[in-house]
């Protein structure tokens, strides 16, 4: 049977991907309390319906960062999408472009931004930045990004150190990848993935690696990153952000903001938007959820930048909930990867189409003609 929702795509992805890779995408951190709380907090949001509104053809159009978009969705940056499918980043970008949805390229993508731009010439590409310790290397990366017609930079600010993901330590998935009898057997049990993503591309282009690393450090995911200059800088400050703001000619979004004071500081420092995000519950288990933090930050819209939100979205109704709580747009992270794993570019596009259809259905039941009509039940 054809998949009907994101959970169906997730189930197919679970069958097709090695366990270590699937867990890396799907699971959280520490005791995974945050994952459960994200889901519970979204389930607890109720939306207020309006009745007898006549025919309500729902419009999903929105203005995001001063531009009109046909939907309020953005594909979030996800590391190693090119390990889910061959040329996975390009396939996701093309799937998103079918609906006018921006695709955010990760610093830790397998494909470099130049290849993604060539493969998806019509896509609206954003770029997510992890700042390397060598700022000259970072500046050169940003020059490459700007040359690929990416004018929106997403600076991730909630990953100061590697999170504790014990399941990946147990199953041996990581970078560098360290073969064990268990994880090698797991890959051999997924021959389609092994051939299509690792062996066949490896014969043509070499082993997968971080595509944005300088060539001399692009040794494949089996090799450790020994260059200190390419390690993520754990000590970023607002002064660093100001320097980035002064040097970048486009728009800058800060991703990973959960506090009102930080949101207000972001606006004062020149951020064009922030993403209210718990990193999908993947970094730290003791954080508030997006659904808890978002309405507090949105309570004084004049004092904060434009708001995006992410974490835990599985249904179109989840998107509507974040919009009702104050977001202008919602990022999708895991879900597009499940679609990609299940059916490549077509699978990712089908998943997006399902979510958009669920959004339109939900707006019909709410009597909402536009996204501005969405409102939480307790208002």
Automatic annotation (TrEMBL):
Annotated active site: 279
GO molecular function ontology, one term from the record: L-lactate dehydrogenase (cytochrome) activity
Binding annotation for glyoxylate: 24, 165, 279, 282
Key words, A-Z: Flavoprotein, FMN, Oxidoreductase, Plasmid
Required co-factors: FMN
GO biological process assignments: aerobic respiration
EC number of this enzyme: 1.1.2.3
Residues annotated for FMN binding in this entry: 77-79, 106, 128, 130, 156, 255, 277, 310-314, 333-334
Enzyme class: oxidoreductase
Coiled-coil boundaries: none
Signal sequence segment: none
Domain FMN hydroxy acid dehydrogenase: 1-379
InterPro entries: Aldolase_TIM, Alpha-hydoxy_acid_DH_FMN, FMN-dep_DH, FMN_HAD
Transmembrane region(s): none
Highest rank taxon of the organism: Bacteria
Cellular component annotations (GO), alphabetically ordered: plasma membrane
Entry similarity comment: Belongs to the FMN-dependent alpha-hydroxy acid dehydrogenase family.
Record's protein name: L-lactate dehydrogenase (Cytochrome)
Organism (species): Paracoccus denitrificans (strain Pd 1222)
């Amino acid at each position: 049977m054809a998949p009907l929702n994101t959970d169906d795509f997730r189930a197919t992805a679970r069958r097709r991907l090695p366990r270590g890779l699937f867990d890396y995408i799907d699971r959280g951190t520490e005791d995974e309390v945050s994952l459960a709380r994200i889901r519970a907090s979204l389930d607890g949001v109720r939306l207020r319906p309006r009745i007898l509104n006549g025919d309500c053809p729902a419009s999903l159009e929105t203005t995001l960062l001063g531009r009109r978009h046909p939907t309020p969705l953005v594909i979030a940056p996800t590391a190693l999408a090119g390990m889910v499918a061959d040329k996975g980043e390009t396939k996701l970008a093309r799937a998103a472009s079918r609906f006018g949805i921006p695709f955010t390229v990760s610093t830790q993508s397998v494909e470099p931004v130049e290849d993604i731009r060539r493969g998806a010439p019509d896509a609206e590409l954003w770029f997510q930045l992890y700042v390397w310790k060598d700022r000259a290397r970072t500046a050169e990366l940003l020059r490459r990004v700007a040359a690929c017609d990416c004018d929106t930079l997403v600076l991730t600010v909630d990953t100061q150190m590697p999170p504790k993901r014990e399941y990946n330590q147990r199953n041996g998935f990581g970078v560098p990848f360290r073969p064990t009898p268990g994880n090698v057997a797991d890959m051999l049990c997924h021959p389609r993935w092994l051939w299509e993503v690792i062996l066949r591309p490896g014969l043509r282009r070499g082993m997968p690696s971080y595509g944005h690393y300088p060539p001399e450090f692009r040794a494949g995911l089996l090799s450790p990153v020994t260059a200190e200059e390419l390690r993520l800088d754990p000590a970023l400050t607002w002064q660093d952000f100001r320097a980035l703001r002064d040097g970048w000619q486009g728009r800058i979004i800060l991703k990973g903001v959960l506090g009102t004071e930080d949101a207000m500081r972001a606006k004062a420092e020149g951020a064009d938007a922030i993403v209210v995000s718990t990193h999908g519950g993947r970094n730290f288990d003791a954080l508030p959820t997006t659904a808890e933090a978002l309405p507090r930050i949105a309570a004084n819209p004049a004092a904060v930048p434009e708001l995006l939100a992410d974490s835990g979205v599985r249904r179109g109704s989840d998107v509507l909930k974040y919009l009702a709580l104050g977001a202008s747009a919602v990022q999708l992270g895991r879900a597009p990867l499940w679609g990609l794993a299940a059916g490549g570019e077509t699978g990712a596009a089908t998943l997006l189409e399902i979510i958009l259809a669920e959004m339109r259905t939900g707006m019909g039941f709410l009597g909402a003609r536009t996204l501005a009509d969405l409102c939480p039940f307790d208002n």
